[in-house]
Design goal:
Blueprint: E1 8-9, H1 12-21, H2 26-33, H3 37-44, E2 50-51, H4 52-62, H5 66-70, H6 75-84, H7 97-106, H8 108-132, H9 153-163, H10 169-178, H11 184-196, E3 199-203, H12 205-208, E4 213-216, E5 221-225, H13 230-245, H14 247-255, H15 262-281, H16 284-293, H17 298-305, H18 309-316, E6 330-334, E7 340-345, E8 374-379, E9 385-396, E10 404-414, E11 436-437
Parallel strand pairs: 3-5, 8-11
Antiparallel strand pairs: 1-2, 4-5, 6-7, 6-10, 8-9, 9-10
Helix pairs in contact: 2-3, 6-7, 6-8, 7-8, 8-9, 9-15, 10-15, 11-13, 13-15, 14-15, 17-18
Length: 479
């Protein structure tokens, strides 16, 4: 029996999850712990605290580490709540930090409900911005979307990621638990063998028939194309482990998306598996410390973790774990024709989701300087400034005659964060007070003196050239 000095905690949701993970009914658990089934129900509903004695009994009965069972005391929910309550809409409400912590610890169900509602609100705001874009063509931030297709699975997944700032703490947590075991290619291969009875084989492209990775459960083999480079090989091994061992966590994150089409759900599942794989290779806590130490030097970080430039840049955009946030970044990937194949926005950059981006942005010109990092200060028509880092990346190849695809990656942040990056050290590179004036896209950019313009802006009247030829492709009134 607990004394008056014994610390008691409320952990109903964790206790309920433990019971379900063990496949037990409340009656089963009550019998194991030698208490009544109604008492288990009270514990799970947070109507009774879990005493230290009960914690020890649970740990001994189910062979569980006491620290894992006790959890973080609501620290993760508290951090997420504190981050959300910084939003301007809550600025007139005085909510002391202690009240937030009490809510997260004492009423985890209500806290989770609030967090889900906020996420749903963010998704609806993004969807409304998409639908409202044509009517707001004169305004930079919202007019970037020239039209909206409710059945576009790619747009739906991008909204899903953006609403969560491209961060999934449950996947990061699961990955950090898993990488306590040996990781890296050798560690992943050994874990696949010991835990899943899967043997890794490397086969040439003509045998793989277009697959880089294929799981053959009948023969208990994981087949990998033998021309993969080290970073890609490691990523495919990690992704297969994620599908095998983090499927529950991926499913929980996926369920929250409530996708309208099967294609969107499959694309989101693929994105979450890739997120989990990156979290296995670049664990959040270790990677977050490394970015501070190396001042976001992407090439140095890639060397440290054995990853590609693109994998590293992508991971940097995910560092928005509540309470452990780093610089918010956006990322875009384009091909030489200007087609956008990847977009992650965690920095509030008003991307043009349809049509080409501004040709004055260096992401389109780095193809002339392959694998060389090009930095650039950007200024939008409304005065917002960003710092951009662009470089080409290569996909495919690996053998003579194999098709190689060249793309360009740009990763950037708001100007106020640029001083934390190694790329602005000692005043190297372009000057901050001489940014490149760019637009979101020609159809929604109203800069009158742009020689790179490919189309006139929406809502502006073109000036006649009967008596005068303009120095720009489309002359229009600046009024």
């Amino acid at each position: 029996m607990a004394t008056s000095n014994t610390r008691s905690v409320f952990m109903g949701p964790r206790l309920r999850r433990l019971r379900r993970d063990l496949g037990l009914t409340q009656a089963n658990m009550a019998a194991d712990l030698e208490i009544s089934a109604p008492y288990v129900a009270l514990l799970e509903r947070n109507q009774r605290p879990v005493t230290a004695d009960m914690l020890l009994r649970l740990a001994r009965t189910y062979k569980i580490d006491l620290a894992d069972l006790a959890g973080d005391g609501g620290a993760d929910h508290t951090a997420r709540m504190q981050s959300i309550l910084k939003e301007p809409m809550f600025s007139d409400i005085d909510i002391p930090a202690l009240e937030i912590s009490d809510l997260a610890v004492s009423y985890p169900g209500m806290t989770e409900a609030f967090l889900r509602l906020y996420t749903a609100y963010r998704e609806e705001q993004l969807a409304l911005a998409d639908r409202a874009a044509p009517a707001l063509a004169g305004r930079t931030a919202l007019s970037a979307q020239e039209g909206f297709d409710a059945n576009d699975p790619v747009a739906e997944v991008r909204r899903f990621l953006a609403a969560r700032r491209n961060n999934f703490a449950n996947l990061d947590d699961a990955a950090e638990r898993l990488v306590q075991h040996p990781s890296g290619p050798a560690g992943f291969i050994e874990r696949l063998r010991l835990r899943h009875n899967l043997h890794v084989r490397y086969l040439p492209p003509n045998v793989m028939l277009g697959s880089l990775r294929r799981l053959d459960l009948h023969r208990r083999q994981l087949l990998l194309e033998d021309s993969l480079d080290t970073a890609s090989l490691n990523f495919e091994l990690a992704k297969q482990l994620a599908y095998l061992e983090m499927d529950d966590e991926i499913g929980v994150a996926l369920e929250a998306g409530k996708f309208t089409t099967k294609s969107a759900e499959l694309l989101a599942r693929r994105a979450l598996a890739a997120y989990a794989a990156a979290a296995l290779i670049m664990p959040y806590s270790v990677f977050a410390k490394a970015v501070d130490t190396r001042r976001y030097d992407l090439e140095a970080l890639a060397r440290q973790f054995g990853t590609s430039f693109e994998q590293t840049a992508h991971r940097v955009t995910t560092l928005q774990r509540p309470g452990l946030e780093k610089i918010p970044f956006f990322l875009i990937r384009v091909d030489p024709a200007g087609n956008m194949s990847k977009l992650l926005d965690g920095a509030g950059f008003p991307f043009a989701k349809h049509g080409g981006a501004c040709p004055l942005w260096s992401v389109h010109s780095v193809f002339r300087t392959p694998r060389q990092i090009v930095t650039q200060w950007l200024e939008l028509p409304d005065g917002q400034r960003f710092f951009s880092i662009a470089r080409t990346v290569t996909a495919g190849g690996g053998a003579f005659g194999a098709v190689r695809v060249e793309r360009a990656i740009a990763i950037g942040c708001a100007a106020e964060h640029a001083g934390q990056l190694i790329y602005t050290r000692d005043g190297e590179g372009p000057r901050a007070d001489e940014p490149t004036p760019i637009g979101v896209a020609c159809r929604v950019c109203h800069r009158p003196k742009c020689a790179a313009r490919s189309a006139p802006p929406i809502g502006r009247e073109i000036m006649p050239d009967d008596f005068r030829t303009s120095s720009v492709p489309f002359g229009f009134s600046a009024d």
